[in-house]
Amino acid sequence: MWQQLYSELKDKNFMVVAVAEESRGADHARQWIEAAKSDYWQLVDVEHRLEDLYNLVNVPQAVWIDEQGKIVRPPETAGSTDHFRRMDLKTRTMSPEDQAARLAARAAYLQAVRDWVTTGKFALDDDQVRARLPEVTPQIAEARARFRLGVWLRLNGDPVEGDRQMDEASALHPESWSMWRQAADLDEVGKASGPDFWERVKALGDKPYYPAPDL
Amino acid sequence: MTTILTATSEYSVETRNGLWMKAADAEKVTGWALKPEGMCRDDLCVPLPPGAVSGGEVDVAAFWRRLGGPAVANKDGDVWALGTPADERNAQLQGLEAPDFALPDIDGKERRLSELRGKKVFLATWASW
Questions:
Q1: Does A136 sit within 8 Å of B86, measured CB to CB?
Q2: Which of B72, B98, B119 has its CB closest to that of A149?
Q3: pLDDT per position as a tens digit, B26-40
Q4: Which phi and psi angles does A171 have, rounded to 5°?
């Protein structure tokens, strides 16, 4: 997904780290990772540890980190848009206008990454990053613990109790699409984008599924 | 034996009545050691809640909740997860140093974010689902 960007910028002290939030594990992620033919890091995160550490709620989200290891942009949507919400579900197609707008938004985001790497533009100052970091609440912290427990139970032969823990995690942290969709996927591949998913998306109303990054 | 999941590890420990365990096991699981002042890590000691220590054993669930962290269990009570307290997460993120982590690639080779110090890093998630 990021190979072209990485190829362009790899000689400029730049690295891409792509993390698969994939509780089914490396063997499940392998087909996509091999198809990407990437030479940046492709890592597999069975427990969604990165989402816990960085307070993430969906994929794709990205964090920009500078040469000193400092966060210069908080978690934000990495090039995806909400145009998919208007697609024709029978044909799985978007209108030409939406398709064009979607590609333009993605191109603008990738250009921002390029500008950051080459000129430093779009890096936020410390106070701006802090103000934009979403707060971890005690409910979110408990949701993460229950999600971790649920994944473990799922992988260790107790799917019923695993599901129950993951349901509770989603109830505690409803903004996390990753928790809900990963649980649905563990139940059955495909369920994460099935009718229940679309119902949930519809229930967002005017709220975004992929909040646009404020570049 | 009870399985205890922490942010990055998994332990198998002898417990009774919830998460009561020997002080040595409590230290192994939480990184906090039992002392007369309470549970201590480096120079910091946190007093235990009343009734959470007895005969060289510690109620780790009570201690963990005192720290502000979630301590949750499955229905049978033999698998627990101790989550990172929200305040600790927020303080770490507000400090702006990118939290370090080690994760494997598809061949099992571990990579650590801090190996990339000196480079700009675009850290992005994806999923098949």
A1: yes
A2: B72
A3: 999 999 999 999 999
A4: -65, -35
